[in-house]
Amino acid sequence: MIYFLVTFVFIAFVVAIMAIGVIFGRRAIKGSCGGVNNGNCVCVEKCDKRKKMEAEGNV
């Protein structure tokens, strides 16, 4: 039981630290542009990496 409690407290601590980082960093958490869809960009606005790839013709 002690292992469960230690693990739970540790994971809760890590989640809290990540939440504080997001709150004070003021940057939204966002996914990547494309990825699972064989490189097809499904974003409304293309990310910088995707724009660069398209400009180089590596799509």
Features:
2 helices; single chain; 59 residues; 56% helix; mainly alpha
Could you explain how this protein is built, in words?
The protein is mostly helical and about 60 residues long. The chain has one domain. It is about 55% helix and about 0% strand. The protein contains 2 helices and no strands. The protein has helices at about 1-25, 50-55. It is elongated, with a radius of gyration of 19 Å. The chain starts with a helix and ends with a helix. The model has no long low-confidence stretch (mean pLDDT about 75).
Taking the sheet with the most strands, its summary is: none
Distance between the termini: 52 Å
Count of alpha/pi helices: 2
> What global shape is seen?
elongated
Number of strands: 0
Concise overview:
The protein is 56% helix and 0% strand. By secondary structure, it is mostly helical.
Topology at a glance:
Layout: H1 2-25, H2 48-56
